[in-house]
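Closing statement on the zinc ion sub-project.
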Amino acid sequence: MNPKEIIERCNDMIKRLAHEAYSEQNPEAVKDINALDEVIEIVEMREPLKPMQPEVDIDGSIVNPCGYCGGELQIIHDYCPWCGQKIDWSKNGD
Ligand SMILES: [Zn+2]
């Protein structure tokens, strides 16, 4: 199962749990939803993301914004120091 599929399944489970959690006010279902939200966040972070299009800073230096949070990345970073996103620095293809 790839990360996209995991996230889709988690979102489906959240939808199924929503009625039980909020209409029936079942605290266990609320906990399940919170846990699934965490899983989605972790899976998103683990999947390498390419940086956004490089920008030229006011001082003329090149800035590579994180593809997830937009924070400034250095080429030495395997992970964004701001949000923890894994960075894919490869140039070609997807
Ligand atoms: Zn980031």
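The pocket of zinc ion is lined by residues 66, 68-69, 71, 80, 82-83, 85 (CB under 6 Å). With this model delivered, the sub-project is considered complete and its resources will be redirected to Aim 3.
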